[in-house]
## 1
Amino acid sequence: MRALLALALLGCTDASLYHLREAPIEADRVAVRGRVCTEDPDAARFPLKLVLVVDHAAGPLFSAYDPGGQRIPLLQSLVRSALARPGVSLAVVGYASQGVRFAPAPDEGPFTRNPGPLLAAITRLALPGGCLGADQCRDHDDGLRAAEGLIEDDLARTPAGERVRTQYVVLFVNAGEASPLARRRDCCASGDRACLAAGDAPDAACQLDRDVARVAGLGATVAAAGASFRLHALHLAAAPAEEADRVARTMDRMAFAGAGRSLRFEAVTGVDLTDLALFDREGALRAQRLVVANINALPGPAGPVPDSDGDGLSDEDEGDLGTAPDRADTDGDGVGDRVELLAGLDPQVPELPGVCRPLADPAGDADRDGLTDCDEALLGTDRSLPDTDGDGLVDRLEVALGTDYLHAEGVVDDDGDGVSNADEVRERTDPQSVDAAARLGRAYRYDVVDEGVVVEPVAPALERVAGVDILQVSAGTTAGVGRLRFVPGAPAGLQWQDAGDAAPGPLVEVPRDGDYLLPGASYAPLQGDDGPFLRVRVRLAEAPPAEASEAVRVLFRARQCLRYTVRNIRLLDTVPAEGRPERGRNDLLLYFTQAPAGRPTAPGALRQALVPVQYLPPATRTPTGAVLEVLDEEFVGVR
């Protein structure tokens, strides 16, 4: 009797049913889980554009404060240091009686990494600028206006997808009070007759307000364009004490308005720019949305159907239309089949639409969102932004599922089934049909935990040791400069010296491509992540032919991280398609959208990961696990 009862209980287990915490072991369903964090702007080498706005007005700066011109080599050293950092470009503005763009030349664009014109521009700052009149010798406002013009020009030239990663930094170097000072009338309220009557008197308070307003206005302009902005003030206290104190207050207020720092130096010999941290990229990103999609299983009224080529048309629909279910662009003209139908074009007749003819590569995909540049030109989406409307839903997904890709979805519910379009895209159900009753069985199930902002060690991509990617820096790694060494051979070897160790760790044999743990000399297995080590991925075919080593600067950076499990991802039998020769291929794409800090609804940067799965009915799947682990390092930043 007990044996029969045991068999009965065994037959009633939930091994093949959906479970809240444990993914079922079913060949046609899979779950993914992992941890993903926002990109660190420094490690990702986001663009940083530095404008040096430097006072060279005649007076005490040249005669009493710095007669030997010691500030010039200091600024030249700053330029060299900037150019040694990937992703940093510069411009130089000098101001005396007016602001003048010294470098780069207009035909070079607003910013440059060419050291010649930049260093020559710094040399020009050694010459005092003359006055245009008795009281027109140091025009703060015109210097800032010149910097503003450079930045606005650059914003206009920069695609939206790059702007969101760009940080503009202004270093405002000043040696004295504005001359001429603003007049009182410049700051009068409208209708204040008493103020206007006394309006010609110079007014230091009004000048301060105008300088601060210009900085705040420039910051607002940059933010509205999707980029980030800081202004630092470097006060060379060359003026008499009372004037220098007034200037210091102005510099403090300007730096505060520009979210930067203000430093004052009484003597040129004490000038040190370290505390300004000019090259620390502070354009922090915040997690917006995680969306998982099986690109080859298109949701429909009766459940998911195969979309072998991932073009947003089911294989059945392609058969009815006469298009190829194994080619996303049947006629090869650079426009996907679904987009051609949306645009009223014939997907079987090659034709380059007029809006696509100016494009350098109509069939290219600049933002890597799965839509060609020509697709995006026809649709009106931004080919530099994977998520044009900033709602956290990548354009490709919205186009395929028929939602509004130009305006944030919010709580719009096109099919009136009580589930918003945004949730249907995220859960991979059909936003165009009433499927609420079947939602429990069809919808992807998300379990996402926001870990908040986490301080973790990061390392930049390697430059000299090719074929090696740093996947993980352990929590116990020492901040500072370590060294990675590659030794060719059969087998090859890798060695890591932590910044806190006096000697390198053991040489780790690398007989084949794969992932390897490189311990530091002080690492012991019982330490776990609290010991110093790197985890790397090696591609031997790309590795250096001779021994090579590289200094690796480990920093601790704050990133927002999500821990997630997404279940009930349905797999379907698909036909071999272009670029995917195997039958049953299901590409699971994980999209992690990020928004600029403080602007959660702005279109931002994207990280995405690809998990290929092969499913052959009824019971064969590769990989076989019920839950597939995805590392943070497998997410690739789109830029």
## 2
Amino acid sequence: MIEGSGSDGERLWYAQPAKDWNEALPIGNGRLGAMVFGAVSDERLQLNEDSLWHGGPRDRNNPDALPNLPRIRELILAGRLREAEDLALMALTGVPESQRHYVSLADLELRFAPSGGAAGEYRRVLDLRRGVTTVSYVQDGVQYNREAFASYPDQVIAVRVTADRPGRLSFRVRWNRGQQRYMDVVRTWGTDGLAMAGHAGGEDGVAYSAAVKAVVKGGTSRTIGEYLLVEQADEAILYVAAATTFRSADPELACKEAAGEAARRSYEELLKRHVTDYSALFDRVRLEIACPAGGKEERPTDERLAAVEQGEDDPGLVSLYFHYGRYLLISSSRPGSLPANLQGIWNPHFLPPWDSKYTININAQMNYWPAENCNLAECHLPLFELIERMREPGRRTAETMYGCRGFAAHHNTDIWADTAPQDGWPPSTFWPLGAAWLCLHLWEHYAFGGDEAFLARAYPTMQEAAQFVLDYLIEGEDGRLVTCPSISPENTYILPGGESGVLCAGASMDFQIIRALFDACLKSARILGLDDRFGRELSDALLRLPETKIGKHGQIQEWMEDYEEAEPGHRHISHLFGLYPGEQFTPEATPALAGAARVTLERRLAHGGGHTGWSRAWIINFWARLRDADKARENVLALLGHSTLPNLLDNHPPFQIDGNFGGTAGIAEMLLQSHQGTLHLLPAWPAAWGDGCVRGLRARGGYTVDMEWSQGLLRRVVIAAARAGVCRIRGLGPDIVELNVEAGRSYAFAAPFEREFEASL
């Protein structure tokens, strides 16, 4: 451990209760989530269950799409954009135009018996090492403590309330769901529990239920009306469970069984099971940046964040933010849960911003950028399950709307894996490559882990996505294959005559995604020994795709033509997909394109780009891939100072969780890169952040990497190999080091790196 670092480096803490949702602290087990507010007299747990969505499945594919598709393409190619968009708004939108939306579960309210004394010594903490939030204070000479966590092994949220003097705990518990307007029934459950239930979106929507059970020591519990009363207790433990008909035929019974089973264990056992399970994931990676003893970590988290907003550097807050992102992914995406949506699982609204769905033109993908390199590959699995469920709806979309084989999706999907277009907003709606991008996550999972059995299962899905693209491409005037209609999410271009539009024949991001998908399919087929004929189709198509162009400003062109942008500082920078998360632009292999990518970023930022949290997070990853440590650091601090809420959640605004995950991935990318067959150690780590160490980062090829550094210079490296082969390493000196590694062996380097390995461990 580094001098001056300690457990406070992995804790968020505050000296006062949360004033609003943006200050509350999140807990979650992938399926169940809560925001804990920590008020002294009126505690609030705002609860979510990942499968509580409004309404049921529908076939929204527009039957008039295919008959009108040739005319739409004709209008686009003729430059008659207004006519093309007008027809597309009728023929290419879903029917009805919107997918289903995520819904808040309820608030669990705890109202404590009034006291005449003010509370002192208040402290509210989220311990990232244990996945537990605590509240403590002293009132009338009594020390009160609360502890809450969401258990994955036991599928409940547990809340323990204690006082250090006998009989001083009295409070009432109540469900609140929009002042009961959105709740069908509340009923007592014996003398120590309450259950509530309802339907979300009528008969075709899911039915839901939630239950709370109290176990008290030294006092009593009873129910009156819709209240559960705890009186004169020494300790009270609440077990909270929730379920819907998405998974359970009888949600209320499922809740009562889960809460009842948890209550049969001691609290200590329940907590131990939770911490053991959670820490097995969290403890795989550790990032420490040296902070002087008695320094910034002694200040509350919100004060540190405010200081960064005023221009102060705080490397310790950077490492805290990095670990918080890993905590959030563990808490919102576990095997068996749904994937993390636009708000993870933490949403207080019955009609949330952007419906809190899966936005798959960047946001859902960004949620999973840290899954592999931050050693949380299991957390990636819920996304793969959603992709698999999208195949059948996506086949209907591909055939009905476009007359294509394979499967397709647009820029959103929902709990029901809906693949028809979402909204009627041309800058985002008419983009059918959502499935193509998502399928690249399947390849990334293989690239990091090397599991050929997984690849064999995933390849048919990737192949179907590629098959749709092959059929969707049309021949342009120059014989090139282009996507049409398409867009560059969610930007607008200006024609030489002054007309603006969004529909186009070929956006740069399309071809970068298509190249990446086709290449992944070709590599997969070679590994698995499959599909010579399909591989030839892909190879032939690759030769006919437009190449990325450099425009008149020296930038990467966003469209096939060098149009002017209506918003030069637009939040989407989709035409740099080939820089990150793709690997088509690199300083070594394509220096001209890497230089043009730098110009693109500089132009975006000069015109106010990066003004949303997720966009700023993407920019961090771009600068890391360009190996500009100072720019990467500058944008990490901008993300913290301008797009981060007091509870460290990302601020779009409003809250979206993708910025947290993208920011965490960006910090990891500054530490370690592994694209194009080479491990690059500390490719963009700023010397200004002093001494530090990291352990447990994963790299493509089956490697796990530990590093120590001082003032940005490596001092020690350990590389563990899961597979045998040649490991190519950049960063140990002027040249790339090539090392023959054996599976299951670790290899250590120590400065000076001119000599051979210090040891083979």
## 3
Amino acid sequence: MKEQIQLARRYARMVWPYRWPALALASVICLIGWVYVLFIPNSYEVSAKIFVDTRSMLRPLMRGLAVDNDTLASSASLMKRTLVTRPNLEDVARKVDLDLSAKTDREFDTIVATMAKKIKLSGTVQDNIYEISYEDSDVQLAKRIVDELLNSFLETALGSNRKDTASTQKFLEQQISEYEKRLLEAEQRLKEFKQRNVGLMPSEGASYFQDLETARARLRTAQLDVQEAENRSNTLRMQLEGEEPVLGMMGDSRGLMSPVGSQYDGRIAKLEAAVDQLRMQYTDKHPEVVATLQQLEDLKNRRDEELAAAAESQAADGGADLGGGDSSLVYQDVKLALAEAEAEVAGLRARVDSYGNEVKMLEKQVDTMPEIEAELKRLDRDYGLNKQQYDELLKRREAARLSEEVDQRGDDIKLKIIEPPRIPLSPVGPKRVQLMSLVLVMSLGLGGGFAFLMSQINPRFYSAEDVKEIAQLPILGTVSLVFNERQRTERRMEMIVFALVLFGLLSLYGGLVGLEMMNFDLNSRISKLVEKTA
């Protein structure tokens, strides 16, 4: 720390002999700089505030039916997109007659670029208040520019919805027309395909292989029905011929067959076939298998009871012969039942033949039907996609129409100018206090730098230590300068004058700063004084 203090004292001794040139240079720089700062024109800022009122009773009621338009809700981005665009700025410049001061296109471009830099846009989405401001030395010009920017914003904001809605409606109409044409073409292709493949179209909701499996299942069921009907017909025929059926033929535990037992045989055979079918898929403990077996057992028990009752009736009648002649009532009943059974067999055989032909036809089409089915699915899918898009576009068009009507109601979104542009009473710039302080600091720094430079150009020894350091020789002694009374008086007067000049410079700085802080417009007064003098 001691070395730094000694170094500072050394530099102070070096620059002290040149204090007057340094002070003169600092004073000149301060005076020139302060005068320049005072002559800088005042800058005025004109601003306007807009409130975007998005509250509306109609908009919530139409939510879901009309398109939600948030263009005005995001007014900050709207202003940035429209107000600072080149065409809009050129239009504003022409309206305020800035183009009259430009002689060439380059000068006009410079004017527009300068105006764009001075425009400030700000706002918050939370309270929907936005501000447009412009700063310029000509307060009347600044107000006119803000007025034009405000009018441009209002026109853009109020007209953007209708313009967007009109363009949207036009686009939707074009798309609807195009998709309507596609839909008609898809319908025509589907109709022609169905006409070319009449009789080969798959069933509704089923594929070719499902239709084939269904036809085979119907054929198996019809064949089983034919077998049952033939068994019943053979049984009745044997009874008419006087043959007594045994257990091996019909499965009767008593070896006796009666026409009564034949009404259960078909149902029993069907249930047995159903049990076989179920056992191919499930075990004997499955609920469906257990229920079917129980039903089958009940039918067999009922058949046995009926056969036993018929046997007892025959024994009571003395074993009357069922085939004794036309006079026997039983014979007539059996003969009638045989005729009905044979008719049923014939009908079932015809059904079997029909189902068989259907299965054969489907099996022959195993190569063509899947292709037809795939082509039909493709056409249906193409038609479905076009139909879905067409219906969606119709909904969008209706929503856009409702939105247009909502926008034209006038109570949807309102723009309110809560603070119109006005001429400010005091300027916002330049910051003269800061500029004057900067001039003072720079002038003192330049003065000190000039004194230091002069000390380096004309170096001197100011102490015995400096001589010893340079000469590298021991100092035997020093001779001091003794001032007389007149010389001491002169040095004191010189110091007083130097202090007064420095104090006057600082006092002038303090006075100018004080006047600026009291909003005393020196620039206007000096400008008026210069105009009067001129």
## 4
Amino acid sequence: MTIAAPHEFEPEQGGMAACPACAVVPSAKELAERVKPIAARLMLSVPMAHCAACISTVEAAVLATPGVRSARLNLTLKRISIEATPEVTAADMVAVLKGVGYEAHELDAGLLSATETDKQGRDLLMRLGVAFFSMMNVMLLSIAVWSGAESATRDMFHWISALIALPTVIFAGQPFFKSAWAALRVGRLGMDVPISLALFLASSISLYETIEGGSHAYFDAAVMLCFFLLLGRYLDHRTRAVARSAAEELAALEVPRARVLVEGAEVERAISEIAVGDLVLVRPGGRMPVDGVVTQGASEVDRSLLTGESLPVFAGVGTVVSAGEVNLTGPLTLRVTAAGAESSLHRMADLVAVAESARTKYTTLAERAAAWYSPLVHLLSFAAFGFWMWKTGGDFRHAINISAAVLIITCPCALGLAVPAVVTSASGKLFRKGLLIKDGTALERLARVDVVVFDKTGTLTLGAPEPTNLDAHAPHVLSLAAALASGSSHPLARALAAVAAPAAVSDVREVPGYGIEARFGGKLVRMGRAAWVGADPVDVTATYLSVDGVVHVFTFADQLRQGAEDAIAALKAQGKTIKLISGDTTGSVADLAVRLGIADWTAGALPADKLALVRGLGAAGHHVLMVGDGLNDTAALTAAYVSISPASALDAARTASDIVLLGQNMAPIGDAVRISAQAKRRILENFGLSAAYNAIAVPIALIGLATPLGSALAMSLSSITVSLNALRLK
């Protein structure tokens, strides 16, 4: 999809017009000459980008292409944004990146933003900075009052404190005030209601006391309360990655345009303009833009994004293909059976959207604690006000001061920090081990996991086949195999191309969908499918080389990801049930299950099957951890109780996951489950500390002994204690 930049008109340098208006308004001919080429913005997913070197390599390759004006690779999103002239197409850029070793997929720029902004995080950080600056200054002024300043000196310091504190509370407290008002409008008491009430009462009572020349003011407590609560809110925000909807990412992966055959001529059309029954041409290297049936051509199709099959499959006349699959070796003509919103890729996006909407049921321990905390605090505060109004014979000033002291000293700070402080500490520890926590509730949910479901290709394995029987072949056979393999981009061929120095062959030709043939010593040699070379197929992944009527069989196994065995062993040691489900063939899945010691496995699974498994386990009362990397895993990742994807996963899978595995090593997954259990214990300990503090502090406030100084110090002490307990995770 292209986005047109505004036309730019440049004034002429020199030349005269008959009148000022003529000098300003150009003619139609001049307009045509002056209009610059409209810039096209292209967006591509680059899933293999993973480091700073990748940024320089990818951007340099793209910028070296004629017509490209700018290129920017976002390493976090693994997405490159390109501005170029209209002649430069996404297919050109895919080819350029393939030439430097990077797989790329076109994204729909209309559905995605080229830049990701974190407005909420910046806003919280700004308010936090203002609150900290004000808190330190008001505390300095309060020290003078606490040290014995009286009469005019005390009043002056109170007024200066008011000038600092009141604007600070109004500005920095906006997140709490807005949230509290939204809750009250629907008749609900949330955590922010007592917070807002405490801020309002502390500020208004302090102002009243200052006007009346009173000896006590709560300005320091109000600003400190605001600071600690903003700190907790910011820590909580930092634990949540600002990621777009997985369903939106899936929709962006749909090919925005396709080449339609109209009376034998190729016409490029938007997917929305393609109807069932149209003929669509898909060239080698292109993704299927629609669901359809092959009517002409033969090729091999990569279905790994959708089904998880690690090896390409043959596609000839009559083969059914789906949107999102990649055509590898030969041109195909498709008769459209479904396009746009009706395609299989779009239906998968719908599954993810439904699963995402169910995520709203997850709540943090802090939110559940707030359900009883807010009503209790209000009741205590109002009870204190009523009691002291009765006890003092209607002394409103004394009663409202004690009521405010109760609200302040019950300290929602400790409760507000209990979860974010632990999650931030645990997230930092896991980040150093190679895991990025995206969701604030992920650690709490991970601690409850009892079943772990793994995908195979790209998750437990690298999706890269490696030869397993090279020792069974003579050196001259290996050289011949390497020579033929170097003429193909098939995954099995790429695995054989480097096994030996290639022999001298001639007339190398790839036959799409079948294999490679060449002349060696004047004789025809072939390597490819069993039926094509006249061999009997074996029951494992293999390719076949025919030389002088003798067939040599090369077998392959998927390369195991580093740390996969350690991760499985660690999870078993923690008592977790392990399941393996994959869209790959039975032989490949069974072989991997034996290698890793997984007894429960399923092969040939479609995306809907994976989703059904995860939902079924959840319905049976299990808490499922799903680990996957492809489009075919996205719906299951979203529906799982908690999910993990490797950084090499497709954008949509990473977005759907709660945790991203940053490196190639799978071993940290076992650490994540163990550390999550420790984090949950720390959170419960923090709640216990907060409860113990309130059990001591609230009676003191209720009987009228909580001075502003005492309230501020107690509040700080409880918050610091909670934070230090969280740091024990490190």
